[in-house]
Amino acid sequence: LDFDSSGCTDESACNYDGDAESDDGSCYYDEAGCTESVSGDCEAAGGVAFFTAAGCVVLATSDDFLAQCEELGVEESILSACLDAGGPEAECAGLAAAYGFAFGDDCAAAIAAAVSDDPNALCNLAGSIAEDTFDDCNDLAASGCAETCADPVVAGCTDEAACNFDSSANEDDGSCEYEDECGECGGDGSSCVPGVFGLILNDDGNLDVTYDTEAPIFGFQFNISAVSITGASGGAAGDAGFIVSTSATTVVGFSLTGAFIEAGSGILTVLTFEGSGEACLTDIVVAE
């Protein structure tokens, strides 16, 4: 037997051989919508040294055959497979001896050489098995000629920590949402804020932060998006003597003397800003 370094050199083929130096025309491809029409785990058609009838030979790189090879050695496992497939004893013995001589106990190398379209190969692969014989992936898998079918893609949230986790999803689509501090799925933390707060663009071109609460306010913090805050002054916070500090996105107001803003409604503070956009008030925290 002449075992050269030829094989399937197309990486998209089911039987791509990364060790092959030249292509021998043996490539076969995905059929019937399966990930592996004639899979790498079970599969050959044709015969063992031309002695088997048409159909699948569970040999090739199947786990069972590999385990048998590692236990018995290349020669004995090849002999057993050939005889089980109906091959004449003398010719099976010659075939097994040739494989044993060429590969010793190197099962992986023996299997790689055994599975090809070479007429001397132990199993002749047939890439058209799925196309010619089976109508769909499930029929192919049920036949034993392939072990895996492509799972349908189900897009959704795959993070179990998310509040909208989808146990049926196998591909994350970026839709995961999480509970905010108020326990709301995908919320911004504002649903449990005592009172109603808002933003209004005033006649001076500044932002009035409005409030409407049923309890006094002893301190507050919130974020502003889309614009850059440059300062805060006035409003009920100014009247109460609050210290109001700002960054480009955050406003914090509090009193060092225990002063508070009476329950009611009005303008909490007035913000100056730079930039343009649809400003939003988020992440509101109020100390009562």
SSE layout:
Layout lengths: L5 E2 L14 E2 L39 H10 L1 H11 L4 H15 L3 H8 E2 L6 E2 L4 H5 L3 H7 L11 E2 L14 E2 L23 E6 L5 E7 L5 E7 L2 E6 L1 H5 L3 E4 L3 E5 L9 E11 L5 E8 L1
Parallel strand pairs: 1-2, 3-4, 5-6
Antiparallel strand pairs: 7-8, 8-13, 9-12, 9-14, 10-13, 11-12
Helix pairs in contact: 1-2, 2-3
- Biggest sheet, strands in spatial order? 7-8-13-10
Could you say how many structural domains there are in total?
Answer: 3
Report the major sheet: 4 strands, antiparallel
Distance between the amino and carboxyl termini: 89 Å
Instruction: Kindly estimate the percentage of residues that lie in beta strands according to DSSP.
Output: 15-25%
Order of helices and strands: EEHHHHEEHHEEEEEEHEEEE
Give the overall average pLDDT: 74
How many strands in all? 14
Question: Which structural class do you get from the secondary structure elements?
Answer: alpha/beta
What fraction, in percent, of the residue positions are helical? 10-25%
**Shape annotation:** rod-shaped
Q: What gyration radius follows from the Cα positions, in whole Å?
A: 36 Å
Describe what this molecule looks like in 3D:
The protein is an alpha/beta fold and 288 residues long. It folds into three domains: 49-133; 150-190, no CATH class; 196-287. It is built from seven helices and 14 strands. The strands form five sheets. It has a four-stranded antiparallel β-sheet with strand order 7-8-13-10. Strands 11-12-9-14 form a four-stranded antiparallel β-sheet, with no helix packed on it. Strands 1-2 form a two-stranded parallel sheet. The protein is rod-shaped. The relative contact order is 0.11.
